[in-house]
Amino acid sequence: MDRRQFIGATAALGARAALRSRWLSGSAITLGLAGAASAQEEDADSLSVLTTAADAQAGKTLAELSAALSGSPRGLTRQVRRLVTPFVWSRSAHHHDVSFLDSLDEMLATLASRQHEDGTFSVGNRHSPPDTGFLIEDMGLMVSLLEADDHAASAEMAGRIRDMMGKAGPGLAAGGVHTPNHRWKLCAALARIGHVTGVSYNDRIDEWLAEGIDIDADGIYSERSGIYYSEVTNPSLLVVAHVLDRPELLEHVRRNLELTIEHSEPNGEIETIQSRRQDQDQRVVNIRYFYTQFRELSLLDGNGRFAAMARLIERQFAADIGDFLGDLIERPEIAATLPADEEPFADLKRYYPGAGLVRIRRGKLNASAFGGTDWYADGQPTPFYNRFGSGLSTNPTMLRAFNGKAVLEAVRLVPNFFSMGHFRSNGIAFENGEIRLGNALAIPYYLPMPAERRSADAVYALSRSVDGRFYSMMDFDNRPVSTRDLTTNVAISGTDTGFDLAFDISGEADVELTFELTFREGGELSGAEALEDGTFHLIEGEGTYTLGEDRITFGPGNGPGLIEARPGEQYAWHNGGLSIPGPKVYITAKSPLTYTLSLGFA
Question: How much is the pLDDT for 31?
């Protein structure tokens, strides 16, 4: 942030200091928001959208109450929140609806019965501090809402929730985590508990914060995931910033929100191919959970791009954002009218070295090229080479592109080479507008053990093969090898209509190569031969994928050949798969190969 931005942000913080102070004391909440936006008018349109959605959620919660009661404590707590929010909200159709009270009583009793003596809850993980932290997020908000309400039942409910929060405090303060984002969820939960109970856990919060926030220069958190990290970490840091007066934490959120815009599509989806978490499977992930983050920072900074993103979320996901009504009731300053919109989706060409990602936006064409899996670092194999698991980036998609509603989910390459599965680049370079990917596979055959390492009892170390495909009692690390080699280089360059992907594959001859193009469901494919299993083979000429007025062309075909797109030994051993949903088109070839795949977007 430059000095002018800093001064502006500081002034904005000062202007809202009184509101923040009242929020901390619990008296900021005026459940009809009367007089709450004295400096700025309230955003009546936004409140109407959220109220409608929250009322609908409440009805669904009551209709599915038995499932909520038998579900996880985390899910149950969220359902309690979905009843409490409209109950206290004067503009809700369910305001002070006494028919809610029996259900709320049963839900709170069930929650209390499932809290362990150490204050934690089990949500899959036993006695889990971080999962309990997610419950505390909802509990803290509900205590604020209920304490400010004027219904006779509200104070009693607030007391029951406050007791659970107080009981959870010591366990959360003493407990540990599993993933990076859990640290910040615990900090937020402990800050909430301290505010509600008056028992300070600041020393433990400071221990976690002293590790440093794991965000890179581009604004990407270490797990590189929008759904598993940003939507957890940003709200957590905002809570700590406000409750404990740590405004320096806002800068991390600000940077990540700028990054989120760059990684988002105009339809509200967010890129996931670079993720280290489960969303790297390219499930459709949207940005609705960023709603209050964009609202708060847009108002704090006068940021029209953030305001536009909040409005986009309201338009695209109106029925799914009722959970955020409680946030705007608790903190009326973020219910103020947003700044004027500024277009958020500017054209860009940007390289994110920490994630091995390049993002290109050109009008309605949005593309991502990826070469940043954790198999490699600085062009060399890492200890994670040919390993798969939550927390590792392993997605083999090299290019993904949106052309309006027409989506090319993935361009992938599968060499039929020693069951190594898909091509994964050993890095990515972006220079002079050209993206370069590549790797060199050297697959060993193991030779006799040198005389000085032979074992008299014929027992050799159980070890992992050098290529990571299997394990044997062969002491692989100490054996000489001979290798079969395959080198793949890819150069991606822009054209007037799209991209050319130039492949140069050398080394081992006669390796069957399968190029796999996966499109999103809903469109129509032409130009390729339909196969019995529902996939397609582009043998010659150009293929086309069309959805409405949007079109993607691809090709040329490269003749008949073997289609072999299995994901490799590591998946096969576990009966796993790596397929993305959607119609697939294959182009086949053999090594050595020089071939250019041309993609056009119209």
Answer: 57
Query: What local confidence, expressed as pLDDT, does residue 229 receive?
Result: 78
CB atoms under 10 Å from CB of 72, counted, come to 17
Give alpha helix (H) positions in 348-477: none
Q: What is the dihedral of CA 392, 397, 400, 406, to 10 degrees?
A: -110
CB 382 within 8 Å of CB 424: no
pTM of the shown model: 0.91
Strand order of the β-sheet with 434-446 is 429-431, 434-446, 481-494, 498-507, 593-601, 550-555, 543-547, 524-526
Alpha helix ranges (H) inside 26-151: 44-63, 65-70, 73-88, 101-113, 129-147
- Give the residue ranges of the chain where pLDDT is below 50: 1-30, 34-38
Residue 521 to residue 580: CA distance in whole angstroms = 11
Strand partners, 205: none
Q: What are the phi and psi torsion angles at 329 (to 5°)? A: -70, -45
- Three-state DSSP string of 516-563: EEEECCCCEEECCEECCCCCEECCCCCEEEEECCEEEEEECCCCCCCC
pLDDT tens digits along 274-294: 999 999 999 999 999 999 999
Quickly count: other Cβ atoms within 10 Å of residue 210's Cβ. Answer: 7
pLDDT of 227 reads 81
Instruction: Please count the CA atoms within 13 angstroms of the CA of 190 that sit on its side-chain side.
Output: 25
| Residue found by looking up tokens 């073997």 in the block | 562
152 contacts: CB under 8 Å, gap ≥ 6: none
- Which H or E element spans position 262? helix 250-262
Exposure string over 307-334, b if 16+ CB within 10 A, otherwise e: bbbbbbbbebbeebbbbbbbbbbbbbbb
Pairing of strands 406-415, 512-519: antiparallel
Q: Please give the Cα distance from 302 to 305 (Å, whole number).
A: 9
342-350 contacts: CB < 8 A, separation 24 or more?
Answer: 342/303, 342/304, 342/305, 342/307, 342/308, 343/305, 343/308, 344/261, 344/305, 344/306, 344/308, 344/309, 344/312, 345/261, 345/264, 345/266, 348/262, 349/430, 349/433, 350/262
Task: Record the tokens describing residue 198, joined without a space.
Answer: 């008056």
Cα–Cα distance for residue pair 79/3, rounded to 1 Å: 44
Q: Specify the pLDDT at position 228.
A: 78
| Per-residue pLDDT, 320 | 96
Distance of CA 523 to the CA centre of its chain: 26
Q: Are 449 and 366 in contact (CB under 8 A)?
A: no
What distance in Å separates the CA atoms of residue 60 and residue 65, rounded to the nearest whole number? 8
User: For the segment 39-92, what is each residue's pLDDT rounded down to a tens digit?
Assistant: 569 999 999 999 999 999 999 999 999 999 999 999 999 999 999 999 999 999
Give one DSSP letter per residue of 301-336, joined into a string: HT-HHHHHHHHHHHHHSGGG-GGGHHHHHH-GGGGB
CA distance 491 to 596: 9
Give the span between the Cα atoms of 313 and 563, in whole angstroms: 41
Q: What is the DSSP track for 106-132?
A: HHHHHHHHTS-TTS-EEESEEEEHHHH
- Rounded Cα–Cα distance for residues 221 and 337 (Å): 30
Burial class (CB in 10 A: 0-12, 13-18, 19+), 163: middle
